[in-house]
Amino acid sequence: MLQQILHALEMAFLMGWEIFWALVLGFGLSAIIQAFVPKGQMSKLMPDSSPRSLAIACGLGAASSSCSYAAVALTRSLIRKGANFIAAMGFQLASTNLVIELSLLLIVLLGWQFAVSEFLGGVILVSIMAALFRRFVTKQLVATAVQQADGNLLGKMEGHALMDMTVTDGPLLKRIFSKKGLTAISHYFIMDWAAIWKDIVAGLLIAGALAAWVPHDFWTAFFLQDHRILTKFWGPFIGPMIAIFSFVCSVGNIPLAAVLWSGGISFGGVISFIFADLIVLPILHIYWKYYGFKMMMAIFIIYYVAMVTAALIIEFIFQLLHLVPEHLNAKIIETSIHFNYTAALNVVFGLIAIIFLIRFFQTGGLHMLSMMNEPKKHH
Questions:
Q1: pTM of structure
Q2: What ranges do the domains of the chain cover?
């Protein structure tokens, strides 16, 4: 038993080693974007659910933090400030599906096809979600949800979502290398890590356990690999269900997605699984607090249907274009640590992370961390 546990931990560690540099790079680029994209005017850019507002919502979501809890809290803040409810839901989906760090991890663990499909699928997902909201959710239910959102019930990462240290004066390069710019970047970088490190660790541990303990025959039967047509529909359907009960969200579910792909889930199943980080059980509970039970159920059903449909569309588009990679080419981890490009990149980006960490603590970082879950009035 002890040997099995150690084997699972080894698999989790090696997977973490494989993706560390990509995480640092992704969070670094995300921090730079957040440091120079003001949050104050976001709600005014999403006044309705028109294609223009939805496109802006996707762009702003892609420029925000990838933390699912922070995305949910910020979405509520935008709604309270007057943003259209449907556009805000689109922003929320984009915040965890169109971000840089997600694409980098997908490329490292699964291949560029998954990164492209995640981006295209995210756009399709937002479009389907908006259409379903317009068709099936009444204005009265939206009004009730908006009214409840104005209450003082708090979720997680409220302070992180409201944190705004954007630097807006002067040319972009000058702002990036200014003292204020470096401080803002370091704070966003460390705060994003602090927000989702538990999800990353949980995702690695679950992925390591599944990779080490679950036999391939189980995956073959569970994902219906003997039924070539049925498995293409079963994967997108079951993917979100696995995500809901894994409790892992944000980029933390990418290692688990790699294990599922290696086990034989369909291409669309991987995409729907990654989409589903915003309907895991803890986040559904936050929707209930924010918007009420009826709207929570509406969000869950619409998100789920949109996720499955978008994943199926991506599945068949990529099949037609012959872009779906073979399962045998799935790269989970190396069997051991070698001095190769991964090791070199980990050293380089590890040093960058240390520089950000030093800057963070030199500029009041501990005080910022203490406010991650506090409401705005305490900032």
A1: 0.84
A2: 2-378
Rounded CA Rg of the chain: 20
Q: Which two tokens stand for residue 75?
A: 């979405």
pLDDT at 336 over 70: no
pLDDT digits (tens, 9 = 90+) for 221-257: 888 887 888 988 999 999 999 988 876 667 778 888 8
Token output for 352 = 């960058």
Structure confidence at residue 169 (pLDDT): 75
CA–CA gap between residue 125 and residue 103 (Å, rounded): 16
- Residue 299 burial (CB count, 10 A): 24
User: Are the C-beta atoms of 227 and 283 separated by less than 8 Å?
Assistant: no
Which is higher by pLDDT, 38 or 194? Answer: 194
Q: What is the pLDDT of residue 19?
A: 84
- CA distances 203 to 55, 200, 246, 266, 268, Å, are 31, 5, 9, 20, 20
Q: Which residue from 23, 56, 28 is spatially nearest to 42, judged by alpha carbons? A: 56
**Structure letter (DSSP) for residue 40:** T
The distance of Cα 259 from the centroid of its chain, to the nearest Å, equals 18
